[in-house]
Amino acid sequence: MATSSHNYEREDPRWNGGRVSNGERDSSRNSGDNLTDSTTRYDHPEEYSATFRIPVDSLALPADGVLLVTCRLHVRTPAPTEAVVVISVPGKEEKEVWQGYPVFPQVRAFDVWSPVTVHALIEAGQMSPGAALTVYLWNLNRDDIYIDDWEIILAAIQSPTSVVE
Description:
The protein has strands at about 1-5, 15, 20, 40-45, 50-55, 65-75, 85-90, 95-100, 115-125, 130-140, 145-160. It has about 160 residues and is mainly beta. A hairpin with a 5-residue loop joins β7 (about 85-90) and β8 (about 95-100).
């Protein structure tokens, strides 16, 4: 249905916000890492990362379908974090469909880039017509965290309850 990636090297109209850095980092950290390379750009969110937005109507999701949202990104943090990848969309009857997935269980080691993958399922019937799907990282404790190389894949799948045997 749709894919988007954001490596912070150039602007993307479906992404906005974030606190993009140019590889500069506090000198108390290991200077041998790629965060000190001034040609590398990444998001160093204070509370919210750059946000991906796409109108759900543009996805042509069948009324009985399910939207599979896959997010891949790289995270770097020097300590445990409670940051979450958030996938949300306005729902029917003024209820927000909001799903938060912690990144820390996927962090392999501190102060190195770790791949994080999140999968979410949202039924088409839950989403309000004309709504926009949003995906972002919420750094609720304002931890020292860096993110890069977002990839978002949106796919329609058939609802398991709509299959008749």
